[in-house]
């Protein structure tokens, strides 16, 4: 291939005339048009062409005809409801090889297939953060998933706008992260008899009711909650949780065992809501 023809081919395919660097080499170059496999929309020749992947834009992994992924393989799944057009074209969509994209299951068989592929009952670690639970569909399916996480050991539910979790039980959970929610009391926590690390920063907890139920927790994070402004906050927490090793990332200190008598007896202070503003 001559230098002049190389320059012409490059200019034709890439739209550039800066070929000085390429022309200095004697190695033949195969120029492949980046978009030759794409088709322009029939009714708008000047529009941006659709990528081949647009066929999958509303597909969920368990919808696919050929798939080996289970829910336990997903790192951070999002719960979303597809638009009406998804169902309208569900059983007719085909790929570039003219093969159907989705399975052909209907009704109860389709639901059973989805449940089997999700496999949430076997999940050891699950992350359902930043879900939009203002939507009824997403809220319903989110609650259903939480009810199935019976074997989860590490659970992350950050920034979901949650207020209550007391109706759920995670009997094997050792790590629970519910930062950035609206939980206002320890009484609203789920049943977590084996939890070792509980982080619930930036919630709305303003009292100690229910804290004593956390008999296994060793690391507790409460920063950003109103409770941290209560008088003798650290002393109260360590008295109620004698097994606790760290509070808000700080190990148990000698001062955490010394209740300040200036504010009365410990029993009295446990019942008031006095706070200090620094």
Major sheet summary line: 7 strands, mixed
- In spatial order, strands of the major sheet run 1-2-3-4-5-6-7
| Strands, count | 7
Segments where pLDDT lies below 50 for 5+ residues? 1-20, 29-42, 266-278
Rg on CA atoms, Å: 29 Å
Can you give the helix content as a percent range? Answer: 10-25%
The ordered H/E elements are HHHHEHEEEEHEEH
SS-based class:
alpha/beta
CA(first)-CA(last) distance = 78 Å
Strand content: 5-15%
Structural description of this entry:
- This protein has 278 residues and is of the alpha/beta class.
- Helices cover 21% and strands 7% of the residues.
- A seven-stranded mixed beta sheet has the order 1-2-3-4-5-6-7, covered by helices on one side.
- Strand 1, helix 5 and strand 2 form a beta-alpha-beta unit.
- The termini are far apart.
- The N terminus and C terminus are likely disordered.
């Amino acid at each position: 291939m001559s230098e002049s023809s190389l320059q012409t081919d490059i200019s034709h395919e890439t739209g550039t005339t800066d070929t000085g660097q390429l022309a200095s080499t004697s190695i033949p170059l195969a120029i492949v048009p980046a978009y030759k496999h794409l088709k322009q929309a029939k009714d708008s020749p000047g529009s941006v062409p659709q990528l081949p992947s647009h066929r999958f834009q509303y597909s969920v992994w368990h919808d696919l005809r050929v798939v080996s992924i289970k829910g336990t393989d997903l790192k951070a799944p999002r719960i979303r409801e597809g638009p009406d057009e998804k169902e309208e074209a569900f059983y007719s969509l085909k790929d570039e090889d003219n093969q159907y994209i989705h399975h052909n299951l209907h009704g109860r068989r389709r639901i059973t297939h989805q449940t089997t592929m999700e496999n949430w009952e076997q999940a050891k670690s699950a992350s359902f953060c930043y879900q939009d639970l203002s939507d009824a569909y997403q809220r319903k399916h989110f609650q259903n998933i939480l009810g199935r996480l019976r074997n989860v050991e590490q659970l992350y539910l950050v920034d979901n706008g949650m207020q209550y979790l007391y109706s759920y039980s995670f009997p094997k959970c050792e790590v629970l992260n519910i930062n950035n929610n609206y939980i206002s009391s320890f009484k609203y926590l789920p049943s977590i008899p084996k939890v070792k690390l509980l982080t619930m920063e930036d919630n709305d907890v303003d009292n100690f009711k229910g804290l004593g139920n956390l008999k296994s927790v060793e690391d507790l994070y409460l920063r950003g909650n109103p409770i941290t402004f209560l008088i003798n906050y650290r002393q109260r927490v360590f008295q109620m949780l004698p097994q606790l090793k760290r509070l808000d990332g700080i190990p148990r200190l000698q001062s955490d065992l010394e209740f300040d008598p200036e504010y009365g007896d410990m029993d009295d202070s446990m019942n008031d809501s006095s706070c200090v503003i620094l």
